[in-house]
Amino acid sequence: FLFIYLFLHSATPTEELNGVGNLMDFLDEPFPDVGTYEDFHTIDWLREKSRDTDRHRKITSKSKESIWEFIKSLLDAWSGWLVMLLIGLLSGAETRPLMTSLTRDTPTHDIRDTHSLHQRHTHSSHQKHTLMTTEIRVYLLNYFLYVLWALFFSFLAVSLVRVFAPYACGSGIPEIKTILSGFIIRGYLGKWTLLIKTVTLVLAVSSGLSLGKEGPLVHVACCCGNLFCSLFSKYSKNEGKRREVLSAAAAAGVSVAFGAPIGGVLFSLEEVSYYFPLKTLWRSFFAALVAAFTLRSINPFGNNRLVLFYVEYHTPWYMAELVPFILLGVFGGLWGTLFIRCNIAWCRRRKTTRLGKYPVPEVIAVTGITAVLAFPNPYTRRSTSELISELFNDCGALESSQLCDYINNPNMSRSVDDIPDRPAGPGVYSALWQLTLALVFKIVITIFTFGMKIPSGLFIPSMAVGAIAGRIVGIAVEQMAYHHHDWIIFKNWCRPGADCVTPGLYAMVGAAACLGGVTRMTVSLVVIMFELTGGLEYIVPLMAAAVTSKWVADAFGKEGIYEAHIQLNGYPYLDQDEFTHRTLATDVMRPRRNEPPLAVLTQDSTTVEDVETLIKDTDYNGFPVVVSRESERLIGFVQRRDLILNIKNARQKQDGVVSNSVVYFTEDAPQIPASNPQPLKLRRILNLSPFTVTDHTPMETVVDIFRKLGLRQCLVTRSGRLLGIITKKDVLRHMAQMMNQDPESIMFN
């Protein structure tokens, strides 16, 4: 009900897309206050931290005045935990229709029932020719309906995204990482994005495309966090505090996506968050706990468990198996490198050619190709989650899957849970060929699917590629151990008639390796995998595969898929890689040679008209204030938006302020004749302690300062005299230039 209330009292979709909303639209419109930021700009972390400290000091001092003020201070202190509770509840609750829809194989569910009906009918006729003819007709009908449903679902998804919420496309994690680093993208976490992404995610996954739901669920959870931030001025008016909530919301998103609350917290810490203090860690854990508890009480999978891929193996792993586990890690690293390079090349082609102008035909074409090629193979026809679940499972006595078609020994008298290794039957070999074709199909089609204008995650497709490869390797090792148990590598741990090798474990290790190769996750990946499957005793194989895949992938490039998409989109994101080039601040600062001098304001000789002209003629975020243009002694720094708001308010409310009024940034304005216009005092908006470096400061230090302090800009001085300015955009462009990349690819401020 809270969500519906907030949603109905907000702007229409057209207004949100155009950036125009009514007064009640407090989710997307900036507050008309000093300190808010323009769209596609970077926040000032130091300033936000200072503002929150001042707010907290004011509340603490007031709490001693009365009981009511003391109660208000307690409410303020507990507001963070309340927001976490609401995020966890909403993230878990809205997952119920999502999960129940995604766990059904929508395009083929009814088709299989129809096929069984026709089979029963045709068998009763006892006519061989009629039987074959009817089976062909049923197969073609199933084929046609499968493709038709897939095209319908994908068309509906891309149409809703294109019309109502363009930001609802893709994974969302690259943009979430950028937002958490301090970048403003108005509307990306808005209510229309939340609503449309939740609906279209079900449609996109149900269409049978090679995509997942986990990344989009992180985006959805962050939208929930942004929604509840609007209820508390502590978060809605401070972009730094808002990002603490969004970091915790990302943890809740992974918690409901995988049923892995601890993995969700580690994922937010390792992969998404830019600023993650200890307080945020505690609150992330609480939000993930509430989300997991809500998910467990709903029981969306119908198995009374928190996870979909729960496995229970009855055989321990052996040291000799580390060799194939490490080889799977190598495969995962190579697959990750191949996928990132091919996907980025395709997405760059989409951005730079006419292909990007036709998102609907692209989605329809990829869906049509996917459906046509996927239906003949039973392993690509079913939903990816069901495929992974089957690949992870161990073969029991009652399993009917082709992967469990082993030749049984009629004299075997063992318990159901302790079935020895057996020779593979014809069904297993048939399944191996089908899995090999499915592996090639998934590798190729995922490259073209990820990045289209529909909600699309990458976790499940990457895990599917690894699970297929791992199951193939597992069956191969199992059959080698059975037929060659006298080899020295098997002799010590695999006796004849023993249950030595578990192919499902290889599938689980392969899934972790491929996911790690694409995302470069390590710690959070291993924790997510053992929470996802319940395989706690198999941590060492998972760790070995995850570390190997990262090493192999890093040998070809340090950036994961999300960092690659951030760079492709030109977002101002400073990664954690070390800057090793020997350049100085003077090499990066502006103005450079043959450029106009730096735009500055003087402390007591600039008129209102001069300030308005400077604001009109430039698009800078702020201006240094100096004693005079001759001395250029630095006094402070003033934000562009603060100037605009204060001049506008002064003209409306302060008598005597005209274009010729002198703007004073000094503490006391001098006495002026009565005939002169009234001066405008703006000392209170002047930052008297802007961050400065000398012109000979190494850029390695400057980059570290920008990264750890979250600066927007840094002034360059020599003996107190202003020389220039370095912005975050300048740092990113310089880093791109040093890595032989196009510096103009950094498009935003």
UniProtKB/TrEMBL annotation:
GO CC terms, sorted: early endosome; endosome membrane; Golgi apparatus; plasma membrane; synaptic vesicle
Matches recorded under InterPro entries: CBS_dom (IPR000644), CBS_dom_sf (IPR046342), Cl-channel_core (IPR014743), Cl_channel-4 (IPR002246), ClC (IPR001807)
Transmembrane annotation, as ranges: 74-93, 143-168, 245-269, 318-340, 360-379, 431-451, 458-477, 505-530
Entry membrane topology: Multi-pass membrane protein
Short name of one Pfam family: CBS
Record-linked CDD domains: CBS_pair_voltage-gated_CLC_euk_bac, ClC_3_like
Domain CBS span(s) in chain numbering: 589-653, 686-744
SMART domains tied to this protein: CBS
GO MF assignments: antiporter activity; ATP binding; voltage-gated chloride channel activity
Main location: membrane
Source organism superkingdom: Eukaryota
Keywords, ordered alphabetically: Antiport, ATP-binding, CBS domain, Chloride, Endosome, Ion transport, Membrane, Nucleotide-binding, Repeat, Transmembrane, Transmembrane helix, Transport
Subcellular location(s) of the protein: Endosome membrane; Membrane
Family in the record: Belongs to the chloride channel (TC 2.A.49) family.
Annotated protein name in UniProt: Chloride channel protein
Organism: Cyprinus carpio (Common carp)
